[in-house]
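Hey all, sorry for the wall of text incoming. These are the two entities for the joint prediction.
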Amino acid sequence: MLSLLQVLLSGIATGCIYGLVALSFVLIYKATETVSFMQGDLLMLGAFAALGLHLQAGLPLAAAALLAVIAVGALGAGLERAVLHRALGQPHLVAVLLTFGLGMMMRGGVASVPAAAQEVHALPFAADTLAIGPLVLAASHLWVILATVLLAALLAAFFRHTRTGLALRACSEDARVAALMGVPVARMHTLAWALGAALAAVAGLLLAPVTFVHLNMGFIALKAFPAAVLGGLTSLPGALVAGVLLGVAEALAGLALPEGVKDVVPYALLMAALLLFPQGLGVRRGGRGGV
Amino acid sequence: MRFPSVLRFFRGALLALSAAALPAAAEVVGDEIVVGTVSDLSGPIALLGVPVRDGMLMRFDELNAAGGVHGRKIRLVVEDAGYDPKRAVLAARKLVQRDRAFAFIANMGTPVVMATMPIIVDAGRLHLFPFSPHRATYEPLHPLKFQNFAPYQDYMEAATRHMLSTQGYERTCLLYQDDDYGLEVMKGVEKGLAANGRELVERTSYKRGATDLSSQIARLRAARCDFVVLATVVRETVAAMAEARKIGWEVDMLVTASGYSAQTHELGGEAVEGLYGVSVLPHPYAEGANSQLAAWIERYRARFKAEPNVWSVMGYTLADLFVRTAEATGPALTVEAFARTLEGMEFTRDYFGSPSYRFTPQDHLGNRYGRLAQIRNGRWELITDYLQ
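and here's what came out:
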């Protein structure tokens, strides 16, 4: 029972990271109808940026982390302005290949720094544990869960209660009508990319104490994408919940099911969900899903 | 349209013929020996490639400064294939045809080695000590293929046997990466257990790049293992130990030579104290080094502005084996003569604490053994000699 709880918590923490990356997919997809294949690379870039700022530039960790998230967000906005907006109105494949290529360039860029390519790094987060009775929790896992809840609340408030958030939602619902109503659609697209990139960077920072910082940490996006699809691709809460669900399912399957099955579970779950709820879990029947 | 394609065919055929007719560089003429290496300086195992290259460079430079082998200088030509077999094939061809490499040392990574080995031996060049645990690098016996990395299966069998006989473990379990590496280790551990009349109590795997090992560790704990063998690399080794210690499980763990790295205790800190590991070559710690090793570390630092690690030592050692064999071969250096000389060579233990490497006409694998080490006070301490 205890080990079940223990594994459950780890699963939730891992799932939160899946969920955050899925959230960044969905945010971009909803606003710009572009599937971004560079979220994993943005995540990796965010973690390395924080590492570089902390270790090389000597900034305190919190400042380095904040600056890294802002920098990656700015990069997202810059890329949208420079290249990605050209993919609008083109077939989906254009944006897919474009983001894929940009992601490879980011990997190449980081790999060209010898220290980054050759070593695994640790961000000096607290590696403490917290004991609640017989239950022992890793501080890093608690951080992940806490940060995710906080981010979700912030995002919800942003979309509900601010004019910009409302405008972004309007864009996602119907860009043309939004434009007619005076919403600056192009600027909203830039904002969506900036937010999506920043979210990925946050996920990278949260992942850092769990798996360390290394060139291939972005592969986690391979799990986050199913989470986004499971959530319906257009629902932000759906993506987050689906991410957590995948993380938990994976963790519990590893504990309880025969050896080897756990790797199949996320994808089996995805298939079942697509068969039973073709619109995704987070989408209301007949609607496009809330924020 | 048909005519040019026929032409192209003939031109291709002609090129192929002329390439085949090129004399294999079986003999070294002039005052230079070219050694090629298809390395990984930018890909997933660049953390091995760079120090190995530096170690080799250092040995060859020292030799050249001292006048070379029988008056000949050795020139190391490094090509970066980034663990990509396609790039590796191009690099190997370039080294064979343009650089006329006499021998290849320390080609990096199994996919690279598998793709380039036929090109190299078909061109009549030596294929020495590749970084691949694959049996094809020394079996079946081939006059040009030599290997000196102990296979996972052999040394893990010996390590498991030793751990069981000294510590009396009753429930051995395995956490493994689900690829060739993990399976090779599993075979070795199972053999070692069978020698003690036991079997694996539980085994559980992870995919390369897995983020969290908590379910695997919980599973092993539920199986009441008292000894866990890890077929992991650095990151997962640390994650496994940290997870077990976090949940208060003080089980003994043993990792393969892939986890025997200074990075393991640098990243893992307190959590990896007490971890056992197999070492096929000791890490060159500056603290407590013998005088020769200390001088070597100084030279390495001065030259590369970096701390040497076990891979730097490996590169240096491989280059040294080459140099000593070339010296023993004599002034008339041919591929054939070099290979036959190497078959009679025995390299005794040196100041790095390496095993002795021995090649015979029947056996081109120079070493099969590893020794046990344990992390104590934040560094690996060797606790046994090489286990037969």
